[in-house]
């Protein structure tokens, strides 16, 4: 992964909608302070628009993706 030192997809919880392992993508970006944009996504059924998180650091995107409501 481009940001250097990024943990693998195994540190991400499964998709809350379908249970599959999400995809982690990183891209160089001129629009972020870090120079990178990290995207966690799962293209499952009708929930595609809801099953994603974006941040400029891997730690933040992982935290956002892995956050679940009580009982999940």
Structural overview:
The chain has one helix spanning 58-66; strands at 23-28, 36-41, 52-55. With 72 residues, the protein is α+β, with helices and mostly antiparallel strands. The protein has one domain (9-66). A hairpin with a 7-residue loop joins strand 1 (23-28) and strand 2. The longest helix is centred in the last third of the chain and has 9 residues, at 58-66. The model has no long low-confidence stretch (mean pLDDT 80).
Can you lay out the helices and strands and say which pair or pack?
Blueprint: E1 23-28, E2 36-41, E3 52-55, H1 58-66
Antiparallel strand pairs: 1-2, 2-3
List keywords for this structure.
72 residues; alpha+beta; 3-stranded antiparallel sheet; elongated
Helical segment tally?
A: 1
State the secondary-structure class. Answer: alpha+beta
Q: Averaged pLDDT, please? A: 80
Strand content: 15-25%
Give a quick summary of the entry:
This protein has 72 residues and is of the alpha+beta class. The protein contains 1 helix and 3 strands, in the order E-E-E-H.
């Amino acid at each position: 992964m481009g940001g250097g030192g990024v943990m693998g997809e195994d540190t991400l919880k499964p998709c809350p909608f379908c249970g599959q392992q999400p995809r982690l993508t990183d891209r160089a970006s001129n629009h972020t302070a870090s120079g990178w944009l990290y995207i966690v996504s799962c293209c499952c059924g009708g929930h595609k628009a809801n099953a994603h998180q974006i941040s400029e650091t891997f730690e933040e995107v992982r935290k956002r993706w892995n956050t679940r409501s009580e009982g999940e």
